[in-house]
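ugh finaly. both done.
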Amino acid sequence: MENGAVYSPTTEENPGSARGARGFAAYFSLTRLPWYRRVLKGLQLLLSLLAFICEEVIPECTLCGGLYFFEFVSCSAFLLSLLLLIVHCTPLHDRVDAGKVKSSDFYITLGTGCVFLLASIIFVSTDGRTIAEVAASFGFIASFMFLFDFIAMLYEKRQEAQLRKPETIKAEALTEPLNA
C-alpha cells in the first residue's frame, strides 16, 4: 500500500492555522472584572510591589522586627494580588468554580488589607524616622486599595442579594377571591 493512501485521511497539512491565534491576547482577558475593580487590582499589585522595593533599599534599622514584618506582608500582598489577577484574567478562571473564586478573592482581599494596614502601622512606629517612611506610605496606600476593593466586592454582593430577593406577596391578596 502506498504511504499517501494510509496517512492522508488522518493527517492535517497545517494544524496550526485551523486552531487560530495562540498569542498572549488569547489567554489574557481583563473583561471578567468591572473597570473599577481592574484599576483597584492593578493599584494593589503596583503599590505592594513599590512598598516591597522601598523597604528592601533600607540600609539599616534600629528595631528590625517591624521592618521584617512589613517586608513579609508587602511581599505576600504582592504575590497574592498577582495570583488573584492571574486567576481573574486567564482561562484558569473558567476551570475553577466562580463562587469559590469570588469567595477567595473576597476574604483574601479583606485579610491582606487589614494585615497590610497593621504592618504599615507597626513599621512606622518602629521606624527610626528615615527614608523608610516612603515605604510605609506605599504600604498605607496599598492597604487602602485592598480595603476599597473589599468594599466594592461587598457592595456588589449586596446588589446581587437585592436582585435575588423574592417579592413579598401581601397576605390580604391571597385571601381575596379571584373573580370578585
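ok and the 2nd:
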Amino acid sequence: MGNFTKWLGAGLGFTLGGPIGALIGYAIGSVIDSGVTEKEYKDEQDTYQKKIKTNSKAKSSTSGDFEISLLVLASVVIKSDGDVDNRELDFVRTHFTDLYGKERANRAFKLFNGVIKKDVSTRQVCMQIREHMSHSSRLQLIHFLFGIAQADEIVQASEEEAIRKIAGYLYINDRDYESIKAMFYNEADAAYKILEIEKEASVDEIKKAYRRMAKKYHPDRLQDIGEEHLKVAKEKFQSIQNAYEKLKEERNF
C-alpha cells in the first residue's frame, strides 16, 4: 500500500467525508493484500481518518473530488444490470489511464475494485456531490456514465434507468439529460435532442439553440475540475458542433 492514502488525500476536498468518505474507507480495507501487516493496515486507516478531519469542511470540488465521484457513480451503473461486464471495467480502466496516466489510474482502479464490492446509497452519494459540485461538472459526470454503459455496445434498460435516477438526484433536468443521452444513440432526431429543440424548430431557433448549448457545454466551464478532464469535455462540446452541422446540411442554411 505504501503511499496509497497519501495519494488519496492529495487534491481531495468534500469527498473525504459523508457517505462517499465511508465508501472510500471501506474500499481501503478491501484493497489490502495479504502481504500487509496489521500495523501497516492500522497506519493506513489512521492516516485516512486524519485526512477526513482535515478536509471535512471543504466546500468546493477539485480534480480529485471529480475522480472519486466518477468511481463511485460508475460502480452504481456497472452493477445496475446485475452483471459486472469486463468490457465496462476495461472502459473505466482505459478512461482513467487516458485521464490520469498509468500510475494514478492503477491506484484509482484499485480503489474502484473495493468500492464496487459495497452497496451504495445512490441518493446520499448524489446529495453530497450536488452540494459541492457545479452544474457543468455534474453534466460531465452523466456524460461519462453513458460512456460506461455503452462500453459493451448496448445501453441496457437497467443501466439507463440507473443513470436517469442519478441525474435526478444530481438535479439534472430532463432536457439536459435527454441531450446528453442523445449523444450516445444513433437516432434520426438525435441532433434535435442534443440541441434541446423540437423537429419543427425554425432556422433562427436552431442557431439560437446552438449558441446556448455551445455556451453551456464549453470546456472552459470545467476549469475547476482540472486540465485532465477537459479532453472528455471537448468531446461533448464536439457533439454539439456535429449536431449543428448536421442540421445545417439538412436544412441547407
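summary for the 2nd one i guess: The chain has two domains: 1-172, 174-253.
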